Automatic annotation (TrEMBL), chain A:
Family of the protein in this entry: Belongs to the ETF beta-subunit/FixA family.
Source organism of this protein record: Azomonas macrocytogenes
Free-text function comment from the UniProt entry: The electron transfer flavoprotein serves as a specific electron acceptor for other dehydrogenases. It transfers the electrons to the main respiratory chain via ETF-ubiquinone oxidoreductase (ETF dehydrogenase).
GO biological process: carboxylic acid catabolic process
Extent of the signal sequence: none
PROSITE patterns assigned: ETF_BETA (PS01065)
Pfam families per the UniProt record, alphabetical: ETF
Residue ranges constituting the Electron transfer flavoprotein alpha/beta-subunit N-terminal domain according to the UniProt record: 23-211
Protein name in UniProt: Electron transfer flavoprotein subunit beta
UniProtKB/TrEMBL annotation, chain B:
Database matches in SMART domains: ETF
Keywords annotated in UniProt: Electron transport, FAD, Flavoprotein, Transport
Gene3D superfamilies cross-referenced by the UniProt entry: HUPs, TPP-binding domain
Domain of life: Bacteria
This protein's name: Electron transfer flavoprotein subunit alpha
Keyword set includes Transport: yes
Binding site for FAD: 203, 228-229, 242-246, 259-266, 280
Function: The electron transfer flavoprotein serves as a specific electron acceptor for other dehydrogenases. It transfers the electrons to the main respiratory chain via ETF-ubiquinone oxidoreductase (ETF dehydrogenase).
InterPro entries given in the database record: DHS-like_NAD/FAD-binding_dom (IPR029035), ETF_a/b_N (IPR014730), ETF_a/FixB (IPR001308), ETF_alpha_N (IPR033947), ETF_asu_C (IPR014731), ETF_asu_C_CS (IPR018206), Rossmann-like_a/b/a_fold (IPR014729)
Length: 249, 310
């Protein structure tokens, strides 16, 4: 079975983003970039399914500017077999990314599509669900476990009240949550080998999609800063402050 | 045109997240309709009808809508959508599961986790773990949004007498997505997302057993118990306790962070709390930068003492 995983280039999760002084956007100049952590989990899951003999081929797809090829190479170093980069000037909105991915899915016919549940830049949590909708496929979002059996996939989902398990026919779209697995690091030999793996570049026009804007970003601001508080010396002082100053207990 | 709000419920009871979504929708300003879709969900619709300020409660009760699978509910919402300018759902795991699917079927964008309504087409939402706030104008004909509960006061649950209109929906019975089971934590404590006080524990707790210390403190305060990702990953507590960028967003009157370092992903879920207390043995821990009251102490001594002295 063929698995398609999506990988997005985002700000490194350890970096605290800054807003541009003119409030037009966040400032990503000279900021460390990396693969979105939820996409790493998606790649890892696909690689484990291949190692378990349940998958035969892993295709990693990324949408965005040329630099996204770095993240595709990382996916290849982690164990993906082949990459497709859909090159766009900027990062299109989720629906447009889903429309582009849908074209790749139609051409490649994977049986399982694994995406991250959200990217840590836009924090949208949409692309997987939108892709499933466009292809009329079942979706298993926020997955913390995944099991293939009898031509279906059983997905355990992290929901507000606890866990929910669904059984989905294949092909299906699964989006990863944090506890699905712990991604490995790429080894140096694998990073070298990844350089030789095939990476195809496509344009939206070739795929017959013209990304549209659905929203206009009017302004980006820093959140209100919390004023630093005080240190208390003892539990007695803490209780006194909570009762008499903050009046919350 | 009216606004369609998707109710959060489990057929029997309406969930409080619905009330925050009603407040957000009311700020957009138009006639409000609330959709209760499920199987045998008349009880939830009855509770919805008591919310003041709604023009209509739509009840879609069909076997195909059991467990409200996104594959089954989205065609219903799409069918209704032509009569609405906005479709609003709480940014809960069910809202986040359903609404992007609806938006894609409608060919429009979805705005996630809206925290402010500027006008009928312009909204504010956090990005980058809440380290930036974007003001975004929607250019689509139908605006589809999930709204963050902690940013909107809950609407009153009682006092209204809205008519319930049953809608006929014969859903697709296909089994491309099939419900297998659910493990839902039952707790006597208040719900994490709406509790007035939250006591959260992190890796510093060291074990699941140690969380009993926090639970005793929480019970004394009438608080909910939350956790950092590290505590959930380590298996100390179940996943539904995780507070943060990719877990639950809370903004209680009082948040007590115990043995939590204060990573940006955790802060994203709690820094709107009114009063923050941090108890950590490392005086350099970043959590102290957002805490109103910080105590540098070993939690295993501090927590029992705090419980005793309340
Ligand atoms: C994609 C992604 C998403 C994430 N989403 C979330 C999220 O939603 N929520 C979240 O919380 N995290 C999230 N994280 C993880 C986050 O980056 C941190 O790793 C996590 O919050 C750390 O948890 P912690 O503070 O409990 O553990 P640590 O950072 O290990 O801190 C433990 C703290 O306990 C203190 N301590 C230890 N022993 C004691 C003692 N005896 N008494 C007092 N203090 C003690 C230590 O001084 C330390 O400060 C995410 C990470 C990624 C990459």
């Amino acid at each position: 079975m063929k698995i398609l995983v999506t990988v997005k280039r985002v700000i490194d999760y350890n970096v605290k983003v800054r807003v541009k002084p003119d409030h037009s956007d966040v400032d990503l100049a000279n900021v460390k970039m990396a693969m979105n952590p939820f996409c790493e989990i998606a790649v890892e899951e696909a690689v484990r399914l291949k190692e378990a003999g349940l998958a035969t081929e892993i295709l990693a797809v990324s949408v965005g500017p040329k630099a996204c090829q770095e993240q595709i190479r990382t996916a290849l170093a982690l164990g993906a077999d082949r990459g497709i980069h859909i090159e766009t000037e900027d990062f299109p909105e989720s629906l447009e990314v889903a429309r582009l991915l849908a074209k790749v899915v139609e051409a490649e016919r994977p049986e399982l599509i694994i995406t991250g549940k959200q990217s840590i830049d836009s924090d949208n949590n949409q692309t997987g669900q939108m892709l499933a909708a466009l292809l009329d496929l079942p979706q298993g979002t926020f997955a913390s476990a995944l099991k293939l059996a009898d031509g279906r996939v059983e997905v355990t989902r992290e929901i507000d009240g606890g866990l929910q398990t669904l059984s989905l026919s294949l092909p299906a779209v699964v989006t990863t949550d944090l506890r699905l697995n712990e991604p490995r690091y790429a080894s140096l030999p694998n990073i070298m080998k990844a350089k030789k793996k095939p990476l195809e570049v496509r344009t939206p026009a070739e795929l017959g999609v013209q990304p549209r804007a659905h929203t206009r970003l009017l302004k980006v601001e820093a959140p209100a800063e919390r004023k630093g508080g005080i240190k208390v010396a003892s539990i007695d002082e803490l209780v006194e402050k909570l009762k008499n100053e903050a009046k919350v207990i | 045109m009216a606004i369609l709000i998707i109710a959060e419920h489990d057929d029997r009871t309406l969930k409080s997240a619905t009330l925050n979504a009603v407040t957000a929708a009311a700020q957009i300003g138009a006639e409000l309709h609330l959709l209760v879709a499920g199987r045998d969900c008349r009880a939830a619709a009855g509770q919805a009808a008591r919310i003041p300020g709604l023009a209509k409660v739509l009840l879609a009760d069909d076997a195909s809508l059991a467990q409200q699978l996104a594959e089954k509910v989205s065609p219903l919402v799409v069918e209704l959508a032509k009569d609405y300018s906005h479709i609003v759902a709480p940014a809960t795991t069910s809202g986040k599961n359903l609404l992007p699917r609806v938006a894609a079927l409608l060919g429009v964008a979805q705005l996630s986790e809206v925290i402010g309504v500027e006008s009928t087409d312009t909204f504010r939402r956090p990005i980058y773990a809440g380290n930036a706030i974007a003001t975004v104008q929607s250019l689509d004909s139908v605006k589809v949004l999930t709204v963050r509960g902690s940013a909107f006061e809950p609407a009153p649950a009682e006092g209204g007498g809205t008519p319930i209109e049953s809608i006929h929906f014969a859903g697709d019975a296909g089994d491309s997505a099939r419900f297998v089971g659910e493990q839902v934590a039952v707790s006597e404590r208040p719900e994490l997302s709406s509790a007035r006080i939250v006591v959260s524990g992190g890796r510093g707790l060291g074990s699941g057993e140690s969380f009993a210390l926090l639970e005793r403190l929480a019970d004394k305060l009438g608080a909910a118990v939350g956790a950092s990702r590290a505590a959930v990953d380590a298996g100390f507590v179940p996943n539904d306790r995780q507070v943060g960028q990719t877990g639950k967003i809370v903004a209680p009157d009082l948040y007590i962070a115990v043995g939590i370092s204060g990573a940006i992903q955790h802060l994203a879920g709690m820094k709107e709390s009114k009063v923050i207390v941090a108890i950590n043995k490392d005086e350099e821990a970043p959590i102290f930068q957002v805490a109103d009251y910080g105590l540098v102490a070993d939690l295993f001594e501090a927590i029992p003492e705090l419980e005793r002295k309340l």
